[in-house]
What we know:
- There is one protein chain.
- This protein has nine helices and 23 strands.
- It is an alpha+beta fold.
Amino acid sequence: MSAASCLLTEDQFLCSICLDVFTDPVSTPCGHNFCKTCITQHWDVNVSCQCPNCQKVFYTRPELQVNTFISEVAAQFRQSAQQKASSSSSEQRVSKPGEVPCDVCTGTKLKALKSCLVCLASYCETHLEPHLKKSGLKRHQLIDPVENLEGRMCEKHDKLLELFCKTDQMCVCMLCTVLDHKTHDVVPLKAGYEGKKAELGKTEAETQEMIQKRRLKIQEIKRSVELSNQNADREIAEGVQVFTALMESVERSQAELVHTIKEELRKTEKQAEGFIKELEQEISELEKRSSEVEQLSRSEDHLHLLQSFTSLNAAPPTKDWTEISVCPPSYEGTVVRAVNQLEETLRKQMKKLFEAELKRVQQHEVDVTLDPDTAHPYIILSDDGKQVYNSDVKKNLPDTPERFDKCVNVLAKQSFSSGRFYFEVQVKGKTDWDLGVVRESINRKENITASPQDGYWTIRLRNENEYTARAELPVCLSLKSQPEKVGVFVDYEEGLVSFYDVDAAALIYSFTGCSFTERLHPYFSPSLNFGGKNSAPLIISPVNHTE
């Protein structure tokens, strides 16, 4: 029997109904074998007695007898399978909480390796073997183990959910397609799965792209913080250096002031000491003569007084002290001169600071060109879009919403909604002009009020030397020299607009605490021609980084 069993396969001893080793095997007249209980229950349920394997119909239920030979061989197979299961169970892992257990295992449940969508059961390695070997079971769809296989059945029709309704975006059974979803777009579950998987792939790619963008943004923010720290350290170092120099200058000026005053006082004291010493010497000589005169005057000897009087020493030489005096030193102007010297030192330090600041903002230079679609009809632009002047001759141009129609203005093509930017404009030879930045939605028609409330952050020149910052209330600017080139710097996030005299490396004016909510355009106005007096152009100039 042992030798014979070695020639047989395990599939030959599996009941095709219960998929397990025969228990009380019986043979049908057509020659197929089943567990007695399995075939009996099968025939009890079905109206006709039919072989489950070959579909042969028996009009009279056959009388079934247990096949003792097959029963003995099946018993050996069962024993061998139990030993094998016992051996493999020690190697297989017992199901833990959260893992899918085998539905066939009795007693200790092993971890399931696969779930069958046809049988609606999960199997460990041992109980999965029939699905891997038996030809009829190989066609069953196996998936990674899942719980609640009953949830894969249609609740309404108790059929397997094997189709996907694209119209209602839900899984359905075959009966659903001829009833509730008759006119809907229904595809096999696999097709729906592949479609959704493709969507998930696209979603995953988009998600990964979003993640990457945010990681890059984190790096950008970290880099910004790093640059901020570097800038802060540099500003602190430069500030400390400047203030240290100023404090040293103040201390030096103070020491020089005290030394100068004390030196004047020492000279006065020395002169006074000389006068006093000389006066005391004369007093001593005069006191000596006074003593001799007094002693002679007390004598009552007539002859002696007359004889001694002629021999009395002549009066010692003395100085006329009437016009001699010691005048306290005058310290007028001493402190003022010291402060002026300190002011000059401060001015030099301020110039160094502005030069350094100007070089920093010049690093944010942008290429700016004039937009002819915004230019007033009187305005002439150069071919390269870098120069603008007023011709006093009106051109016939379309009156578009972008064009200025009353004020002689023009905007740059470029606009900015974040970060920092800087550009320079030559104003040499002009008597009137306006420069700055404006928000995109400014009024370009009729008369314009140029103020921050109306979206203008500008400065202007009128009558050759009247400089004004167009703040909420106009601010008159007192400049030491007339700028020939003006630099305009904007920090969008900081809300800062600054104007510089480039050649003098001096700050002209700053708008601070601005609230920008729109794109900003560089703004230019060459103003009126005034019969050729103001005919020079405004010229957008490249930054000279070598100076």
